[in-house]
Amino acid sequence: MEVKKSPKADLENKKSVFMQIGLVVTLAIVLIAFEWTTTDVDASQFEMVEELEAEEEIMPITRQEEVKPPPPPPPPKVADVLNIVEDDVELDEELDIEDTEMEEDTEIDFSDLAMEEEESDDAPVFFIVEDMPEFPGGEEALRKYIAQSVKYPVIAQENGIQGRVYVSFVVNTKGKVTDVKIARGVDPNLDKEAIRVVQAMPAWKPGKQRGKAVKVSYTVPINFVLQ
Asked: How would DSSP label each residue in 114-149?
């Protein structure tokens, strides 16, 4: 049997070539299919962003209102009341005007005022003044008076008690000894005798500050010694 096809139109010779091209194309499509990646876009995110942007744009601007102080209360109304008095009304009260002018020969006695100031109980008590109080005759006379006036208590002598008692007192503006108390004692019997001796003191020469008699605190030691 004669072959009618020409050798150029025979496809059997190119069968292997077409098979290889088909395989290459198929492999290329498979590789592209595996390598292809898709990203899912969530449309709700865009909606939320749009809503937030819309809210930010629509958000109103608020301002704090200034609190105004309440208005002050109105001043009280004062009713003007006029009492009309007739001219012919007589006044019951009479105004007595005394002549207070002093004559040149008038003398004023300030001694009473000075005595009141000196005798006031509220006068301060000084501890150191310009002129300290002085016992009549001075310090020597004071020591002599104490030595002659002290009578040693018998109980203290029997118990052998001796020591130095400090007695504090105040010489007032008249020189009298007041507010006698024990500053530092030894024995109740000795303390009692020391207070008795000081209270029996004669009047002192009062202390003075700036030429004025003042109250001054004074302390006297009295020694009790057994022989």
From this structure: HHHHHH-TTPPEESS-SB--B-TT-HHHHHHHHHHH
